[in-house]
TrEMBL record:
Keywords: DNA-binding, Transcription, Transcription regulation. InterPro entries: AraC_XylS_family_regulators, HTH_AraC, HTH_AraC-typ_CS. PROSITE patterns: HTH_ARAC_FAMILY_1, HTH_ARAC_FAMILY_2. GO terms for molecular function: DNA-binding transcription factor activity; sequence-specific DNA binding. This is Helix-turn-helix domain-containing protein. Residues 185-290 form the HTH araC/xylS-type domain.
């Protein structure tokens, strides 16, 4: 995973329940988030990812597309996953692209060049998806709880078998596609890269539009679809979320809050504190004290 971060959108204290397991080159994660948020995960281009939604409040969107419990989602040739919902529990799997393609080609009796992994909704039905999710959850828990006792070769084979079987037995239902340069997920990603390149300095709508090579209307549509917020509001909450993460792990030194605020582009401490409290329900000083209390 090249990048993985979380942007809190809804007000309140967020609680994250996560289990992460690594078996060889395969990554497994079960993630639960109880507040409205946008999650961003950027894959290594040599890897492929799968998302299995388990439960959520309201609607859950993956790269701007509404998901359901009857399918497993594979972004295919996309390297970035954006998730947005009021709350959610999901399973995620990452694995090397080449072995997965080799396995598919062997099972289909075709050349590897004939396999193209496009954005795909693998519709299996809720019961079948539930069975795959149950087994992957059990594998994740067993690796996390007894890391020295599992059989790596056996687990690798089972995970590959579960996901290749799902791929081969699901109806071909590619996610609706548009020209990649106009894909909402791609537009958002280009804007995020411009935001990160600024390193805390101000970024305007014009800057974001230029980076994504779109007009303001297209930029707004993309962000509202993928992230649930207009672009500048999204980046404001992203900076606040990053500041909170920094405070949670910082020592309670004199001037620490001011330094954190400045690091993330907040030049007015009073305004920063007010916006912070409005989003997280507590002042930055309360968050900072959690580190000393062992939270």
């Amino acid at each position: 995973m090249r990048e993985s971060f979380f942007v809190q959108i809804g007000r309140g204290e967020h609680l994250v329940d996560v289990q992460i397991a690594t078996v060889g080159d395969i990554g497994l994660v079960r993630l639960g988030i109880d507040v409205e948020s946008a999650g961003v995960n950027v894959l290594n281009p040599d890897y492929i990812g799968f998302v299995i939604p388990l439960s959520w409040a309201g609607d859950l969107f993956l790269n701007g597309e509404r998901v359901n419990k009857s399918a497993i989602y594979m972004p295919g040739d996309l390297d970035c996953l954006h998730l947005h919902s009021k709350s959610r529990v999901i399973l995620g799997v990452t694995m090397p692209r080449a072995p997965f393609v080799d396995t598919l080609a062997a099972l289909r009796g075709v050349d590897v060049d004939d396999i193209r992994l496009l954005d795909r909704e693998m519709y299996l039905g809720e019961a079948a998806v539930g069975a795959v999710a149950s087994r992957l959850t059990a594998i994740t828990q067993s690796v996390c709880n007894a890391p020295l006792e599992y059989n790596q070769h056996s687990i690798l084979n089972e995970v590959y078998a579960l996901l290749t079987d799902a791929y081969l037995h699901s109806p071909t239902r590619p996610v609706s596609r548009v020209d990649r340069s106009h894909c909402p997920n791609h537009i958002v990603r280009l804007a995020e890269e411009r935001f990160m390149a600024a390193e805390g300095k101000p970024v305007s709508l014009a800057d974001l539009c230029a980076a994504a090579d779109v007009g303001k209307t297209s930029l707004y549509k993309a962000f509202n679809s993928v992230c649930g917020l207009p672009p500048l509001a999204y980046f404001q909450k992203r900076r606040l979320t990053r500041a909170r993460s920094c405070l949670l792990h910082a020592d309670n030194d004199r001037g620490g809050i001011k330094q954190t605020a400045l690091s993330y582009g907040f030049t007015e401490l009073g305004r920063f504190s007010a916006q912070y409290r409005q989003l997280f329900g507590e002042l930055p000083s309360v968050t900072l004290s959690r580190h000393e209390q062992g939270y």
